[in-house]
Amino acid sequence: MSQIFFGAPPRPSAPAGANVSERAQLPPSLAISTVIFALKPDPLANGAPTLWLPLVRRIKEPFRGQWALPGGPLTAEESLEDAARRNLLETTGLAPAYLEQLYAFGGLNRSSRPERGSQRVVSIVYWALVRATEAQLSVGGEGGDENVAWHRADTAGAGEGGLAFDHREIVDYALWRVRTKIEYAQIAYHFLGPTFTLAQLREVYEAVLGRSLDPANFRRQLKSAPQIEATDEFLEGGRHRPPRLYRYTGPLDATPGGPGPGSTQS
Amino acid sequence: MSQIFFGAPPRPSAPAGANVSERAQLPPSLAISTVIFALKPDPLANGAPTLWLPLVRRIKEPFRGQWALPGGPLTAEESLEDAARRNLLETTGLAPAYLEQLYAFGGLNRSSRPERGSQRVVSIVYWALVRATEAQLSVGGEGGDENVAWHRADTAGAGEGGLAFDHREIVDYALWRVRTKIEYAQIAYHFLGPTFTLAQLREVYEAVLGRSLDPANFRRQLKSAPQIEATDEFLEGGRHRPPRLYRYTGPLDATPGGPGPGSTQS
DNA sequence: AAAATAGTGTCTGTAAGACAATATTGT
DNA sequence: ACAATATTGTCTTACAGACACTATTTT
Q: Per the database record, which ranges form the Nudix hydrolase domain (chains A, B) (predicted)?
C-alpha cells in the first residue's frame, strides 16, 4: 500500500540526463521473465499447501550461484506472451494453462551490482499458474536439472543472500497480484483438476489468501454461483464421509492474451 | 473482505492474435506512450464533462496525418516512468499528478500497415490523470500546436480512419482501467482541485462511470469515509443554495512508481 | 459408539439503492 | 412565493460473517 499526498505529489525529480553515470549508451534490451505459481504441500506448514515457484540457478555473473526467475531475451519474431511460453518450456518444461502479463520493470538500478559497461535490461514479466501434478512431473524429480528447483514463494532466497537482481521484489508483486485477483476472478480452478471437492477448492483459497475461511459460508457463496456444478460422484477413500465432487463450468479466464488482463466472467 | 467469487468487472475483448510477416530480424525496439485523461465539458453531451485525451498528429509514415498517442523512444539513462513523464512534457506540456503503467504491447502485428523491413516496436504504455485547469493551459489554446489536440476518449479517430497503430485498442483498455479503478481507489481527486463540492466530486464519478449516481447515497457513502473533511467554506456564486466545500485528506493512491501493491482499496 | 468431516439453517451487522422529506439559497 | 439545489432521514434488500445444528461416513 503505497500511499501518498494530496497537494504536492512526490516525483522522481530526475530530468533526463541529470545524473548520468557512465554506462553503455546502447538502447535498453528487452527480456521476458515469468513467475510460475503452483500449490504444493509444505512440510513447514504442517503439510498444508502453500505457494511455490520454480527458480533457476544463475551460472554466470552477475549473481552467479543465486536463484533467479526463469526468463530470457525476446526474439524478433515472437509476441511477448509467446516468448514467455517458450522460455517457460525451455527452462522448466512447464506449459501453464494461465499466463498473464504482470509488469514491465525498467528501473536504472535493477541489478544492484551494476557491471561496468553492461547493457541495461528492461524485463517484461509474466505470471502463470500451474497444477501441482504438472509441477511434479517437470522439475525437481530424479531426472531433474539440479539448477532448476521449486522454492516457497514468500521465502525464496532468504538466507542465501536473496534472489538475483530485483527478483524478490518481482515475486512479491506477483504474490500480491495472485492474492488480490483470486478474490474477484476465476483463477483458483487453474490449480485444480477438472473435478474437485469444495474442501479442496477452499484449501486453494486459504493457501493463496493465507487465512482460513468458514466452510459453511464458503459453500453457500459457491452455491449461489451457477458456474459451480455438482457431479454425481464422490471422492472415495477419505477417512470419513465422502464429499461430493464438483465441476467448474464457467469461462476459465484462460490466458488473457493481451490487454484485457484477464479474467472476465462474461 | 468482499465477495470472493463471481462478479469480476467486464473487460474489453481480447486483442487479435499475431500474424507473422517477414520482417527485419533486428531486436525489438522499445517505446513509451501515454494515455492522458482529463475531464472536459462536452458540448455534445449537453455540457456535461466527459473524458478527453491529447493526441498527436503523425507527420511521418506509417499512419501519416492520423492521430496517435504521445510517446517516443526510451533512452538509455531514464527509467520507464521518467521517460513517460519526459515525453508527456515535451509533446503536450503536461506534468500529471497521477501516472501509472498500463501495459506492455508487443504483438507482431501492431502496425496494421506493416512496412517492409521496419523494425518491430514494443510499447510500454502509461496512463495519467490531469486536472482540466492544467489541461487548458498547455494544449489547444491560441498559441497551441495544431498537431496536438484534445479528443473525446471514446470516439477519437472515428470517422478519420481510426487512430494510428493499435492505439484505439490501447485507449479502450485505458478507459476500462480508469473506470474500474475509480470504483476502488482514490483517483477521482486527481481530476479536482484541493477543495470541491460533493456535487463536483459526484460529477467526476458520473463522467468516468458513464451513469448517474444518487446524490443522497453518494453523500452518505462519502460521509462514512473519514478521509473526506468538510471545510468552513461554501462555493458562492451559484444560482441556488451554496454547497459546502470539502477536502480530501487521505492517501492519494498516487503514482505507483513501481509495481508495489501500489494501489489499494481505500 | 465415537470421531471426523460434509453439509444445512439461522441470526446479525453492514452497506447499497430507492426515494421521501426538509433546508437554504437566488430570482 | 417559487425554483433549484443541498442535505437529511427512512425503508428495503443483499450479503458477508459467526455459529449452532444435522447428516453420513470410517474406525
A: 27-179
* Class of the CATH-defined domain A188-248: mainly alpha
| Residue from A23, A241, A237 nearest A114 by CA | A23
| A-B Cβ pairs (cutoff 8 Å, strict) | 198
Cα–Cα separations (whole angstroms), residue A5 to B84, B131, B188, B190, B250: 21, 16, 14, 11, 8
**Strands B29-41 and B121-129: what pairing?**
parallel
Mean pLDDT of A236-261: 75
Hey, what's the cell of A178? 495472485
Q: Which has the minimum average pLDDT: A203-217, B43-57, B249-263?
A: B249-263
Q: What residue spans define the domains of chain A?
A: 20-181, 188-248
Q: Hunting for cell 465422502 — which residue is that?
A: A242
The class that CATH gives domain B20-181 is: alpha beta
C-alpha span between A68 and A57 (Å, rounded): 6
Q: How far apart are CA B39 and CA B50, in angstroms?
A: 5
d(C-alpha A204, C-alpha A189), whole Å: 9
Residues whose CB falls within 8 Å of the CB of residue B53, separated by 6 or more in sequence, listed in order = B35, B36, B37, B38, B150, B151, B153, B156, B171
Name the nucleotide with the smallest C1'–CA separation from A199: C6
Which residues 8-37 on chain A approach chain B with CB closer than 8 angstroms?
9-12, 14-17, 20, 23-30
pTM: 0.87
Task: Count Cβ atoms within 10 A of the Cβ of residue A47 and give its class: 0-12 exposed, 13-18 middle, 19 or more buried.
Answer: exposed
B15 by Cβ neighbours in 10 Å (0-12 / 13-18 / 19+) ranks as: buried
Angle at A93 between CA A120 and CA A151, to 5 degrees: 70
